[in-house]
Amino acid sequence: xxxxxxxxxxxxxxxxxxxxxxxxxxxxxxxxxxxxxxxxxxxxxxxxxxxxxxxxxxxxxxxxxxxxxxxxxxxxxxxxxxxxxxxxxxxxxxxxxxxxxxxxxxxxxxxxxxxxxxxxxxxxxxxxxxxxxxxxx
Length: 137
Known about the structure:
about 35% helix, alpha/beta, globular, 4 helices, Trna Endonuclease, Chain: A, domain 1
């Protein structure tokens, strides 16, 4: 079945990221920052050092000196954050801070189609948005 292939999952994830970028106004509204001037963009660090390579699905750089680092996750059920994924998020945040030399406060945001499952490893996540948040308002 095609839905069982990694290629299909990759396409689905990329389509979800495009949907999110096409609905940045809804994301900003759900975060309560619709009145704040922002710049939204994906970020990729292609350093030669493989340990420093990483990407962030969407960066929302805000005029109020806060930057939201948004990770998009499309799954058929609530996404489960485990210890390994929590470390990935922290690593992404730290690499972004180091490479961009930003002095802004950094907040990790997860945009997951079905939300999150459990709260064991979510202390570094500031907000969780769902597919419903993209179509509200």
